[in-house]
Amino acid sequence: MTMNNPIQTRAGENYLTEAEEKALFATIKGRKGKQAERDFALLKMCRHTALRRGEAIALNVGDVTDNGVTIKNQLVVDERIAKKGATGAVYMNKDLREILAAHLRRKRTWGESLAADAPLFVSKKGGRIGARTFNDLMGNWCREAGINIYTPHALRHTKAHRIIADLINLLPEEQQQKLQFCAEQLRHKAFSSTMIYTKPTKEQMERVGGI
């Protein structure tokens, strides 16, 4: 069921369930064309790194590669990129690096600049994507996927919820450190900001409703 308006940007609600995330990216992946290919890379970047909206659209080519081909293992979120002064470094996994490498190859075929200071994600007009455009494209893809409409910030919250819920990737002795990992990944200044992710999830409350 699709909502008519974006969900409020609250960490406890503004995140995608696993089924919604799967539907969203399958929908974008199934579409051909420059915009779909760009949006797939942009949204995957936000989902895997938990970048804020403004941080993602501030990225330059040089932030993810030194030579226009090989993707760095880590993204350094410096003062130029970071919002709210939340600087730091985030790891880019193999899947994301492959997506970004493919994006750079497409940028080359599209005739887009691969200079270090060129925008990583380019608008239809050839400049940097704007915040409103990002909001709109996220909403449009949600509608097309037939899921609730989310803001780009939902992908940041989604990353946090996946860290907290993880039972596969973290070692047994690391399970008690999930909140610390989450705070580090999201570059939270205050640990209290991370505590919101300890609240029951939508999926859990749906199961509770069936009791």
CATH fold topology of one domain:
hpI Integrase, Chain A
Largest sheet data: 2 strands, antiparallel
Percentage of residues in helical conformation:
40-55%
pLDDT below 50 for ≥5 consecutive residues: which ranges? Answer: none
Average pLDDT metric: 91
Radius of gyration: 17 Å
Q: Please write the CATH class name of one domain.
A: Mainly Alpha
CATH architecture identity of one domain? Orthogonal Bundle
Quickly give the structural class. Answer: mainly alpha
Note the topology.
Blueprint: H1 18-29, H2 34-49, H3 53-57, H4 61-64, E1 74-77, E2 88-91, H5 94-110, H6 131-145, H7 153-165, H8 178-186, H9 202-209
Antiparallel strand pairs: 1-2
Helix pairs in contact: 1-6, 2-5, 2-7, 7-8
Describe this structure in words.
- The chain is mainly alpha-helical and 211 residues long.
- It has a domain at 18-157: hpI Integrase, Chain A, CATH 1.10.443.
- 47% of the residues lie in helices and 4% in strands.
- It contains 9 helices and 2 strands; from the N terminus they run ααααββααααα.
- The protein has helices at 18-29, 34-49, 53-57, 61-64, 94-110, 131-145, 153-165, 178-186, 202-209, and strands spanning 74-77, 88-91.
- Strands 1-2 form a two-stranded antiparallel ribbon.
- Helix 1 (18-29) crosses helix 6 (131-145), helix 2 (34-49) runs antiparallel to helix 5 and helix 7 (153-165) packs antiparallel against helix 8.
- The chain is globular.
- The protein starts with 17 loop residues before the first helix and ends with a helix.
- The model has no long low-confidence stretch (mean pLDDT 91).
